[in-house]
Amino acid sequence: MHAEIISIGDELISGKTINSNAAWMGRQLLLIGVPVLQVTTVGDDAAMIREALATAERRSEIILITGGLGPTHDDITRSALCQYFQCDLVLNPVVLEQIRERFRHRGLPLAKSNESQAMVPSAAQVIYNRQGTAPGYHFEQSGRHVYVLPGVPHEMQGMMNESILPEIRARQTEWFIESKTFCTNGIAESMLYEKIGNPAEVERWAKMAFLPAPSGVQVRLIAQGTSAAEARQKLEQAAARVLERAGRYIYADYECTLEQVVAELLTQRKATVATAESCTGGLIAHKLTSIAGSSAYFERGVVCYSNRAKTELLHVPTSLIERHGAVSEQVAMSMAENVRRIAGVDYGIATTGIAGPGGGSDDKPVGLVFIGVADKSGSQWERHIFSGERWLNKERFANSALNLLRKRIIGF
Amino acid sequence: MHAEIISIGDELISGKTINSNAAWMGRQLLLIGVPVLQVTTVGDDAAMIREALATAERRSEIILITGGLGPTHDDITRSALCQYFQCDLVLNPVVLEQIRERFRHRGLPLAKSNESQAMVPSAAQVIYNRQGTAPGYHFEQSGRHVYVLPGVPHEMQGMMNESILPEIRARQTEWFIESKTFCTNGIAESMLYEKIGNPAEVERWAKMAFLPAPSGVQVRLIAQGTSAAEARQKLEQAAARVLERAGRYIYADYECTLEQVVAELLTQRKATVATAESCTGGLIAHKLTSIAGSSAYFERGVVCYSNRAKTELLHVPTSLIERHGAVSEQVAMSMAENVRRIAGVDYGIATTGIAGPGGGSDDKPVGLVFIGVADKSGSQWERHIFSGERWLNKERFANSALNLLRKRIIGF
After folding, report:
1. Prediction pTM value
2. What is the pLDDT of residue A159?
3. A positions 327-356 inside 8 Å of B (CB)
4. CB contact under 8 A, B152 and A52
């Protein structure tokens, strides 16, 4: 059993609005074992809508249509559907009363254009909308189910959760589905792929996908079985294999960021941290303070872009910078140790490197970073080289630093 | 002349990744007068890819395909295209050398799976990728142009900007298109809409769209004419109207960020800046250092999350914090003045506020921020209240601060 999504709206194909509805629906459908085969996005154009629907009906049992049900002249989804299903618009008194009640409740006069939303295609069952004026429709034709919903996200989600997803789930009796996502850091997609080895050995149990993100590559596993227990068991087999081969690069077995993991570790241990950033320019501090409640573990951060700032704020000896250069493991460690001592916190974390595009040399190329971490028992450093644009290098530098901090906290 | 977009990837139809690439491409294509007719999103499935391509070729002259060009087994776009265009994979020595060079640069061994990315369809021209290992392809067949690009956003955008958009623009000879985007800060979308007044008066000359972004609302104007001069003249009429009505909120008449504008102003004036952040947690420093060459104007930043850090790093008097609270105009100004003096720079910029979700009170609610800016002739402050999630509040706080700095620099 498969589903397709047809998203309708000029604002979608012109790029004014990003199609987040389709992503939301895709996630919900996958979790009830009904994968989406295709998402088709068209403008407010009757011929394109009919063509998309005809094509989808040839392939899929479930078709979800969103958008173009508003009260204005450019919303033409309803009339396109009447043409397609060869039916008329008829007044639905229940919907009319609901629309009137909404306006009464808000103390507003009822606009003619809103009243016309009570006219519904005669071939469809109405899906009531408790959050807005546009009702949804359900067409059933030769085993195909076509659900039509407004494009306003919270209205669509309300109607999906209340009536459509339970209905589809009841109809999907083929499979039980279980899924897991591993987040990695510090390994490139191609290297991770080789570490895990022959994908067929994982895919005996579960479908495996690699999803690159600035924080690192994610590995997603989806297992299906004829019972919940079977799906769960298959997922565990696949997960065990990935863990065995690539465990040392995995920082979480659910979808999350490195700063979330670090925040949780620090909070659990009632530990505090301070940052000393050069090339990351405040990004590590920004990430650590993006978590609600971060004032419990984040004490301060300094961004010492100039050598003078490194000396004044962090007491890095001028002689150390002269001897090894600002981009060196010695300076990274000195920054981490000193920010920890000066701020009086448990952990100090520091970066110094070359984000680019300028400032590189043969010896110290663009993309090079030294990361230092310090705690009461000492300090350590890592050296990485990335090759990306400035923003991506900063992202990767910051995530490598958070990962080093994570490893230091758990004694990895 | 129309375009279609085919987005490929299991992560898109499963809703793991929101299809922001299609929106970006739709915007860029519209700006060169080539509207998108349909966006088709399919999984990593050869038959679905071929079907989507065959359908798109019947309707549109330009087809842009993204995704599924990675080095792993689930990336099958390339082989699906070879089947569709009935050609083989051949080794491209230039691409192979580029991939080798990338790995050499990072000091990493070359994975077999990456080496295989140098195998390209024999029927295609190669589009070089300067930001990653997957090259793009250009197929031309009976007047149809099929461009194939990796799904990694910055790689796709780089290749679009460098080669594909200029090529399509040269081929679009029906209309002359001129467009302009005004970036605003400090005004909500509905207020901006009312300020500009009757949209028909602008749309006599150019299509107008409002695009909300965390940095502020953008107003996009697109004019078309049968000559370049006509399109330009219509655009100027529309732009004059927008400028007249909403000019004081506009910080740029092209698509850019506030940090880009501030960076340019500082660089032109050979001026320097230091940041003192509380609630923005390093985000302003991160934004200011996201611009290449930022070491010329950014001297240092401090993130003083605790009151102790405010006193130790910025010499904010404890009595001032006790009298007015840490979230106050007095503390914001003291932070800005002191960071300027201590760092020995031309401008100091500071934030103190409540990003939420916790920490608010009736007096000082979540979303409240005080911003201070200081230069040699004195200091000033602004107070804003926003209502969003933590990340959005931080974004808006930081952008408001950058806008205040901008206004101070130009003497607004």
Report:
1. 0.83
2. 96
3. 343, 355-356
4. no
